[in-house]
Design a protein that fits this description.
Layout: E1 2-3, E2 17-18, H1 24-31, E3 36-39, H2 48-66, E4 69-75, H3 97-110, E5 116-121, E6 123-125, H4 132-142, E7 147-149, E8 157-161, H5 162-173, E9 182-184, E10 188-190, H6 192-203, E11 210-212, H7 215-221, H8 226-234, H9 247-253, H10 260-267
Parallel strand pairs: 1-2, 3-4, 4-5, 5-9, 6-8, 7-11
Antiparallel strand pairs: 8-10
Helix pairs in contact: 1-2, 2-3, 4-6, 6-10, 7-8
């Protein structure tokens, strides 16, 4: 497991290594002899357009030099606004900075001749997840505090459990049919108010008080932290459900969505 800090779980079958993945020579040396290179790395959220190209180029060059299979963790930004369910064969037509960055990473990898696949996840939830839900809803609900969230409260929205994300990455790496195309992580689809309510019920917390943040709220917060300004691009159209179709993942890779209450029980 390679990271800049050398961190990770303590396990007898895991070797933790401190390295910068943009150092292609170093990364190539560490990857020699491996079967598969997985990447779940990303730069700081507000620096994707500036820093992601160098990171992805180094990873792709390493895969090309070593001949390993290359499994990328991506997300759904590259599609841009879509009128119906998101399917993995949709064109990547995003025009925003982060969406175009994500789209280019896959387009370059797919055209490289490397044995590559991309697993695309929706907003994360689950024990250890880092997302809008985990940062802005989860703890507040369990502590009985007001929840303010930059998301429509009663519109269906798809969420990917991080355990299901890991299982999809592994399943894709082991199936020759997975390469050369993208896959969607299985999701649970429910509104943020419903998900907060399910969490509160399981945790024995009070009924959640949930309110939607406005565009003005985000604009003002952007003066304190650049992360907030980045959310404008990825907010869904008002009133439009954000629903992921993962039927191919279930049928071909054999991975389904973990029941919502099981994921939330792990969080608690």
């Amino acid at each position: 497991m390679i990271s800049r800090t050398g961190g990770g779980p303590d396990h007898p079958l895991i070797d933790k290594v401190a390295a910068d993945a943009t150092d292609t020579d170093r990364l190539t040396g560490l990857t020699e002899g491996a079967d598969t290179l997985f990447t779940t790395a990303a730069p700081p959220y507000h620096l994707w357009p500036e820093q992601f190209p160098a990171l992805s180029a180094s990873l792709l060059a390493t895969a090309r030099r070593t001949g390993v299979a290359y499994v990328m963790l991506g997300n759904l930004y590259g599609y841009g606004p879509v009128g119906g369910p998101l399917t993995p064969d949709l064109p990547l037509t995003a025009t925003g900075r982060k969406g175009r960055t994500r789209a280019r990473i896959w387009e370059e990898a797919a055209a490289s001749g490397v044995k590559v696949t991309e697993v695309r996840a929706a907003q994360f939830y689950g024990a250890g997840a880092v997302s809008v839900f985990s940062l802005m809803v989860q703890r507040q609900v369990m502590e009985g505090r007001l929840v303010l969230v930059p998301q429509e409260l009663d519109v269906p929205h798809s969420y990917s459990a991080i355990g299901d994300t890991a299982r999809t990455l592994v399943a894709a790496s082991r199936d020759e049919r997975a390469y050369g195309r993208a896959w969607h992580v299985p999701t649970a689809t429910l509104s943020v108010r419903e998900l907060a309510g399910r969490l509160a019920g399981l945790a024995g917390a009070p009924r959640p008080r949930v309110e939607e943040m406005t565009e003005r709220d985000l604009t003002l917060l952007a003066f304190t932290e650049p992360f907030w300004a980045e959310l404008h691009e990825v907010l869904t159209k008002p009133g439009h459900p954000f629903v992921v179709d993962f039927s191919d993942t279930e049928k071909i890779l054999g991975v389904g969505a973990t029941p919502v209450d099981d994921v939330l029980a792990e969080v608690i």
